[in-house]
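User: Please fill in residues for this 243-position structure.
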């Protein structure tokens, strides 16, 4: 479905992505893990047209989408739930969701999308007329994901959906991610909680300083000593924490 080949992205003198290659097959949950500054969010920004790549290609469903405008990316069937949620605080839950469907003209389909979001996130339905800025962090995360789903994406990009959430909410969000995937939406997940990400993903990539250094089935990466030590609370991670 999504194929990235030899992608290079720079911010001035900073070479953020250094010829990365990765792919996401239809129906999968694929996770991209790595430390802060590794290039994870830059990868999503390149896919969605928010930053331009210097070289390489991004192909979605057989079509080259490299460097096309962001609104065209949405029209192709890719939607992003951004890091930090980025909801519109002065607008209601319903208004935030409506903005997610800004490019759609099918009123019946839009209503079906509302119904789907409210079924997935009953708490949002309870707060439909409440302004987003008054929601809890977990509710705002639900709203950000729901807003992304209003485009009816074929591929949903999730950037750090568990950031800043209490452990019980993290479990709920990951359960919902699995539910969304089972409903037929392919997911590319960026997540620092590597344990949780690997527990629900089919395949995984590890990004370090702009390079893909490990890739494979998620279950295998969860057992890989390099991944365990660096990202899953192994000996190496403990040493880093003490440094």
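Assistant: Residues filled in for all 243 positions:
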């Amino acid at each position: 479905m999504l194929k990235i080949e030899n992608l290079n992205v720079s911010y001035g003198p900073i070479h953020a992505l250094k010829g990365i290659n990765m792919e996401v097959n239809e129906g999968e949950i694929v996770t991209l893990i790595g430390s802060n500054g590794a290039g994870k969010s830059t990868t999503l920004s390149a896919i969605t047209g928010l930053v331009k790549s210097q070289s390489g290609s991004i192909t979605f469903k057989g079509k080259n989408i490299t460097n096309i405008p962001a609104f065209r990316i949405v029209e192709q069937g890719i939607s992003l739930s951004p890091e930090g949620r980025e909801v519109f605080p002065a607008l209601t839950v319903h208004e935030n969701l409506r903005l997610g469907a800004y490019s759609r003209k099918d009123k019946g389909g839009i209503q079906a999308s509302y119904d789907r979001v409210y079924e997935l996130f009953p708490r949002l339905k309870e707060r439909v007329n409440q302004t987003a800025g008054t929601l809890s962090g977990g509710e705002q995360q639900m709203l950000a994901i729901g807003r992304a789903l209003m485009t009816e994406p074929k591929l949903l990009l999730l950037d750090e959906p568990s950031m800043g959430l209490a452990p019980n909410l993290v479990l709920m969000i990951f359960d919902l991610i699995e539910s969304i995937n089972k409903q037929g939406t392919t997911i590319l997940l960026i997540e620092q909680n590597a344990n949780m990400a690997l527990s629900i993903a089919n395949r995984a990539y590890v990004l370090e300083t702009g390079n893909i250094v490990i890739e494979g089935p998620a279950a295998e990466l969860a057992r890989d000593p390099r991944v365990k030590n660096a990202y899953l609370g192994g000996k190496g991670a403990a040493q880093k924490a003490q440094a």
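For context: DSSP finds eleven helices and ten strands in the chain.
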